[in-house]
Specification:
The protein is built from eight helices and no strands. By secondary structure, it is mostly helical. The chain is globular, with a radius of gyration of 21 Å.
């Protein structure tokens, strides 16, 4: 076994997975602290303004990282291990893991930007029926009910079949290097 092969196996083994898990959980802890500090005083209730784009984006990204990084740990460790163990990648497992986490955060950031744009468009229309002292609570309740009903749909089941286990990615979607991540 060559030195580089031994180093790759060490990075891919239990110690590598533990290091990746520890780094993600530490990042989540730090982002929770930042989120708690940034959100202090933001308890105005329904109708709280999202602030400017810069403010929203900073809060959204830290809050999203705080909540989503712990749930991404299983997939991130799989990306790290598979990238180290399968031949063909020009980049090491650290590069592939970093690219995967960056892509994950970028996808959620893009979602937040779309949601911000929709919010700003609705605010610009200024529909009176959304006022909290009018039909606002009914609209909010309907949105929660629709989200709950979505949980029971075939579309939701189809999506979960694809993403419930990292094994699907390893078997069908894995490509070497950062581009695969």
């Amino acid at each position: 076994m060559t030195t580089s092969t031994a180093a790759t196996r060490w990075r891919a083994g239990p110690r590598g997975a533990t290091a990746v898990t520890g780094a993600l959980l530490l990042a989540a802890l730090v982002t929770w602290v930042v989120t708690a500090e940034r959100m202090r005083g933001m308890d105005a209730g329904p109708g709280t303004d999202l602030g400017g784009l810069g403010w929203f984006l900073g809060v959204w990204v830290t809050m999203m990282a705080a909540m989503m990084l712990p749930s991404a740990v299983p997939m991130v460790t799989v990306v790290h291990r598979v990238s180290a163990e399968r031949p063909g990648g020009t980049a090491g497992p650290e590069t592939a893991t970093t690219a995967f986490v960056a892509g994950y955060l970028a996808a959620w950031t893009a979602y937040g930007l779309v949601a911000y744009g929709v919010f700003r468009a609705v605010v610009a229309l200024d529909p009176a029926f959304l006022a909290w002292d009018r039909q606002g609570p009914l609209v909010a309740g309907a949105a929660v009910a629709a989200a709950g009903l979505y949980q029971l749909t075939p579309l939701k089941r189809a999506c979960l079949r694809r993403c419930r286990t990292p094994l699907h990615w390893v078997m069908h979607r894995w490509r070497p290097g950062a581009s695969g991540a």
